[in-house]
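Colleagues,

For the teaching module next term, I've prepared a clean inverse folding example: a structure given as C-alpha cells, and then the sequence designed for it. I'd like students to try predicting residues themselves before seeing the answer, so please don't circulate the second half yet.
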C-alpha cells in the first residue's frame, strides 16, 4: 500500500510539472514572409535567437548532394559587415555560444547570449540572411572542413554508414535515399555560381522562421526584428516536388561492408509514415517498449536472458515526409544474424497478436510525459521546438499539445500499428558486416 501511494504521489508530481511547462508564445509574419515566434521567460538572464530554414538534403540536386549541410558551415564564413573569421570571435567576446545543424528536412542556426546582447544576436542573424559573403575562399575552406567531418564521423566511425545504408535501400525515388552529409565528389565538382544560386533559392525570409526566446522585452524585441529583418526582400516562392514511394511488398536484402568494425550487425528496417502522423507517434512508443532500456522486452529476453546478442535495439528515425523504423542487433559468438531477426520477429508478432499490459501502457505514458517535460526544460530546447513545430509540423502549439497525443494512444493502437507496418514483406534486411581484405584494398 505504501509503495502504491508513493507511486501515485510520483505520478501526480510528474503531471504537475508537465502542466507547469505550458509554453506561452506570440507569433506573427513580417511583410517579406518571415515568420516570427517570441517566447518570454525571465527565469534567467539568457536569450536564444534562432533561425530555421526549410531546406535540407531532400531539397538538393541529385548530382549536387551535400549542399544543405555545406551551408550549415558556409554561412559562418562572414557577411558584408562581419569580416571573415570574426563571427565566432564576436559571439564569444560577448559571452555567447552558437551552433547549427542540418537534417534531411531543415537547417537550424542559433545563438545563446546574455539577455543584454539580444540586439546583437538579432542583427547577426539578419546579417546571415541579408548579407552573406559566398566566395571561392569560403567555399574552398569549408570544403576541407566538411571532408574532415565526414572522415571523422562517417568514414572512420564504426557503424558510421548504418543510417545512410538504410536510407539508400528503403528509398528508391525520394531524396531521403542519400546521406545528409552528401557526396564529396559532388561538392568538389560544384561551381561557386551553384552555391550562390542555392543560397538565393532557399535562404530567403519566406522560407524561414525566426525564434527569439528567453529574458526579453516583447515590444523592444519586435522593434529590433523590424529594424533588422524587414528590409530583407522576399524571395521567389519555392516550388517543392512531391515524391511518393511505392509500397514495399517483399523483403529487400542488402549487404554493406564496413572496414571499421570487427563484429557484424544485422538491421531490420521498415519504411514508416511522416512524423506528423499519429501512427508515427505510436511507432515511437513501440520502439520504447521493445528497446527503451534494460527493462524493455527485447533487451530483457534476447540480451539478458537468452544471451544471444551483445546489443539489441530499435528506434524510429522520424522525418517530414517518411520515416524509418530500425531494429538492430549484434550477435553473440555462436549465434547468427538470422537468429536475432527471428527473435525480434517473435517480439513483433507478440505485439501484433496480444495487447500489452495496462502496467506497460502506463509506464510508456509516464516515459513520454517525462520526455515532454525534459524537452522544454531549457530555453534552447523551447526555441528549437517552437521552430520545428512551426516549420515541419505546421502547428506551433504542438509544443503544448503533443504530449496529449501520446497520452491518448491506446493498447489497441499499438497492436494495430504493429500489424500495419512491421511485417517481414515490408522491410529491409541489411547485413552490416566487417570488410573483407579484398574490400579494404
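(Answer key — instructors only)
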Amino acid at each position: 500500500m505504501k509503495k502504491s501511494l508513493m507511486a501515485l504521489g510520483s505520478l501526480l508530481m510528474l503531471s504537475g510539472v508537465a502542466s507547469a511547462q505550458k509554453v506561452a508564445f506570440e507569433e506573427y509574419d513580417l511583410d517579406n514572409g518571415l515568420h516570427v515566434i517570441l517566447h518570454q521567460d525571465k527565469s534567467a538572464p539568457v536569450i536564444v535567437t534562432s533561425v530555421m530554414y526549410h531546406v535540407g538534403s531532400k531539397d538538393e540536386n541529385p548530382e549536387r548532394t551535400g549542399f544543405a549541410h555545406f551551408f550549415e558551415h558556409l554561412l559562418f564564413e562572414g557577411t558584408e559587415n562581419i569580416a571573415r573569421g570574426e563571427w565566432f570571435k564576436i559571439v564569444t567576446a560577448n559571452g555567447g555560444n552558437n551552433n547549427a545543424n542540418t537534417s534531411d528536412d531543415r537547417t537550424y542556426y542559433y545563438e545563446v547570449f546574455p539577455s543584454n546582447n539580444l540586439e546583437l544576436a538579432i542583427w547577426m542573424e539578419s546579417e546571415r540572411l541579408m548579407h552573406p559573403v559566398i566566395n571561392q575562399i569560403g567555399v574552398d575552406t569549408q570544403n576541407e572542413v566538411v571532408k574532415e567531418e565526414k572522415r571523422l564521423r562517417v568514414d572512420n566511425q564504426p557503424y558510421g554508414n548504418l543510417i545512410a545504408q538504410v536510407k539508400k535501400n528503403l528509398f528508391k525515388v525520394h531524396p531521403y535515399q542519400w546521406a545528409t552529409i552528401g557526396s564529396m565528389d559532388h561538392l568538389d565538382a560544384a561551381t561557386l555560381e551553384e552555391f550562390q544560386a542555392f543560397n538565393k533559392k532557399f535562404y530567403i525570409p519566406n522560407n524561414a522562421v525566426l525564434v527569439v526566446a528567453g529574458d526579453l522585452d516583447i515590444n523592444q524585441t519586435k522593434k529590433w526584428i523590424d529594424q533588422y529583418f524587414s528590409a530583407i526582400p522576399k524571395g521567389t516562392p519555392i516550388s517543392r516536388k512531391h515524391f511518393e514511394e511505392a509500397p514495399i511488398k517483399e523483403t529487400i536484402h542488402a549487404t554493406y561492408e564496413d572496414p571499421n568494425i570487427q563484429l557484424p550487425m544485422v538491421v531490420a528496417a521498415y519504411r514508416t509514415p511522416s512524423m506528423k502522423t499519429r501512427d508515427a507517434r505510436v511507432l515511437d512508443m513501440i520502439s520504447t517498449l521493445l528497446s527503451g532500456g534494460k527493462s524493455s522486452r527485447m533487451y530483457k529476453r534476447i540480451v539478458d536472458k537468452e544471451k544471444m546478442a551483445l546489443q539489441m535495439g530499435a528506434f524510429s528515425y522520424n522525418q517530414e515526409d517518411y520515416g524509418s523504423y530500425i531494429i538492430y542487433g549484434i550477435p553473440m559468438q555462436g549465434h547468427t544474424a538470422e537468429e536475432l531477426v527471428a527473435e525480434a520477429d517473435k517480439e513483433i508478432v507478440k505485439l501484433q497478436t496480444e495487447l500489452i499490459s495496462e502496467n506497460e501502457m502506463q509506464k510508456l505514458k509516464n516515459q513520454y510525459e517525462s520526455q515532454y517535460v525534459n524537452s522544454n526544460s531549457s530555453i534552447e530546447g523551447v526555441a528549437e521546438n517552437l521552430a520545428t513545430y512551426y516549420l515541419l509540423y505546421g502547428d506551433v502549439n504542438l509544443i503544448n499539445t503533443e504530449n496529449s497525443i501520446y497520452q491518448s494512444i491506446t493498447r489497441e493502437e499499438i497492436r494495430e500499428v504493429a500489424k500495419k507496418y512491421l511485417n517481414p514483406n515490408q522491410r529491409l534486411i541489411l547485413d552490416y558486416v566487417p570488410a573483407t581484405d579484398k574490400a579494404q584494398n
